Amino acid sequence: MALTVKSTDDQAVLDAEHELWATTFSYIKSMALKSALDLRLADAIHHHGGAAEPLYALTPVSRLLVGSWNLVSIITMLLSPNFVTTFLGIGAWFEHALPDPCLFTQAHGEALWTMADHDATFDALINDGMVSDSSFIMDIAMRECGEVFQGIGSLMDVGGGLGAAAQAISRAFPSLECTVMDLDHVVDKAPAGTDVKYVVGDMFESVPPADAVFLKVCTSYSFVGPANFFLFVFVHACALRTPFINML
Ligand SMILES: C[S@@+](CC[C@H](N)C(=O)[O-])C[C@H]1O[C@@H](n2cnc3c(N)ncnc32)[C@H](O)[C@@H]1O
């Protein structure tokens, strides 16, 4: 039986309590999503969609988990233990006077990219995640605002990972010379047979010259320091008087 409250003050306290519980347990929604991915539920529903009377159907959100441009890898990455446990330290992190070390380093004792350098499974999780995010979003980005690349002869995709974003740009503008710059352990795994070139480099040391510098990170990276990425690459682009195309 629902509690009927006469006093508006009591109602306000109950509403606040309801919000507190909802906020406290909101992580369960993420964990339910993780279980659905682990159990490949969206795939199962997708493959039974042709049944005469399907009991379940995919929603617009769960449709993002099936098909060729699905977001399974990036969501799997974001809900993996190394990422999830990182956020248990937000309180301690706020007590620092400085933003460094970033949340990830505080939790794991090393930066995300350092861990990726020596942990092949984690590296694959990151690289595959970024490919899925870029493959999905660049298709839309090229349709919606591809004109920003018009008239550029060469583009440097800084921290471009395995190059899914650069490949999408290169497909749309075949005469545009696209280069991906990333750390050596990532460039080592770069796909062969694309029109994109790959170079090893550290963006905090230098960025090779190009007509334009491109930077795309997944927004979820705010806790590993995209502000740093953004600032360094932006300052560099300004110093070179190079157009800076940013997709944060
Ligand atoms: C968030 S991922 C983005 C990948 C790609 N831009 C995308 O959106 O698909 C960041 C990338 O930056 C690379 N990276 C991290 N530190 C770097 C550095 N100092 N110099 C160059 N690349 C770096 C990582 O290896 C990773 O591939």
TrEMBL record:
Keyword match Transferase: yes
- Output the SUPFAM superfamilies linked to this UniProt entry: S-adenosyl-L-methionine-dependent methyltransferases (SSF53335), Winged helix' DNA-binding domain (SSF46785)
Please list the residue ranges annotated as the O-methyltransferase C-terminal domain: 90-217
**Molecular function (GO) terms listed?**
O-methyltransferase activity; protein dimerization activity
Biological process annotations from GO? methylation
Its recorded name reads O-methyltransferase C-terminal domain-containing protein
InterPro entries annotated for this entry?
Answer: COMT-like, COMT_C, SAM-dependent_MTases_sf, WH-like_DNA-bd_sf, WH_DNA-bd_sf
Q: Which Pfam family is one of those matched by this entry?
A: Methyltransf_2
Q: List UniProt keywords, sorted A-Z.
A: Methyltransferase, S-adenosyl-L-methionine, Transferase
